[in-house]
Amino acid sequence: MKNLILGAAKGYGWDILEPFVISAVKNCPSAELVLFVDDISDFTRARLQSSGVLLGSYPENLKRGVPNNTRWKIFVDFLEMYGDAYEQIFITDTRDVIFQSDVFEPFKTLQNYLGLATEADVIGGDKAGNKNYSWLADCFGAAADELLGQKIICDGTIIGTPSEIKIFAENMRDLLASIEQRVNFRIHDQAVANYLVYKNFLPIENLLEIPIDGEIFTMGLTNDFVIRGDKIFSNAGIPAVVHQYNRHNELIDFVDALYHDKNFQVDAAFSDMRSVIEQATCLLFANRIGDAARLFMKKFLVTKDFGNCVKALLRLWGVTMMNPLSPASELLELSAQSVLKSVENFSASDWDKICTLLQRAQECRHPVDKELKIFIAAQLLKLAEQKLAAGEREQYLSCIELVVSIEGGEIFWQRN
Hints:
Layout: E1 2-10, H1 14-27, E2 31-38, H2 42-50, E3 54-57, H3 67-82, E4 86-92, E5 97-99, E6 113-122, H4 129-140, E7 151-160, H5 162-180, H6 189-198, E8 206-210, E9 216-218, E10 226-228, E11 231-233, E12 241-243, H7 249-259, H8 273-285, H9 289-300, H10 310-320, H11 327-340, H12 348-363, H13 370-389, H14 393-405, H15 409-415
Parallel strand pairs: 1-2, 1-4, 2-3, 6-8, 9-12
Antiparallel strand pairs: 4-7, 5-12, 6-7, 10-11
């Protein structure tokens, strides 16, 4: 019987998913890789399929939901139909995970088990523990206090045998659904996972803790790692899976250098704007910035409708800034910024990304369109006013903090 790697990808381009896919295919030969996707370009879909990934689609009624929450509904439906065809199943995040060896091999002798990876902090701790406690309190009120001091379980990587994986996924689906009816939240799936485990609501006898330096290295909250050759080491050796590597800049660079195709060739069959932007980003990872600029500008000069390209544009801008400043990189950065000025609505994650990119550009003295600064500051002030009127003071203050983080933003705020 085969094993299964199961994940979801919403709004990601091939340049983001490539390290996950390439490392999984290389290191887990016994596994089928199934991804449920939504909001991806034709180019990315073709690359996933040519890499051997089996693709499923988000149901129409779940496309507007928060992916971290809705994925459990999708996974349950899939597992009910096909789960028993596999020996072991690994449910995983995608954009911040790489495989260094076969994750199924260390667990192959176990029966009826569920493996839960833990993070380098406890609920209520001083790293991310307070955030996890806050999520629990939002969902379960005073019951969150009963979990103080417990190790944080990360629900981004779950491994086990089919029956136990199905039990976990069903409980995640059901409890998330009940919370959605009474709590206004974005992403609280991890709170639900910790609640289910520590309140003993899972009818699973063999719950296996995978420690921070175990086969699944959940490393976002720790600096105890080294790079040797083409591997990331924890204190215990080489983990099969590295999760949350993108919390460390040196590991982002390492993964980009190791897993992105340096011989990438543009496919002219995919000429829509989003596919062009994603292919230009792939060219940047291949250190062909001149080719990336030519490809992008050829389409940019004749295209007015950038539709669903915001995240791809932000990605292009960010990756371009990883290169030394040059005429080609300046052209790409300013062109991406020019398009952003025409966008009417940004998501909350888009706002965070834009402000992060602005700050990075200011710090490394890369070009920033002055009109973009004013545009972003003005849009954030409007959003702040809406949050204040709705009584959402924390969100209001967060918007103001973003405004003043923009160079010249504090003066603009005082004037308006």
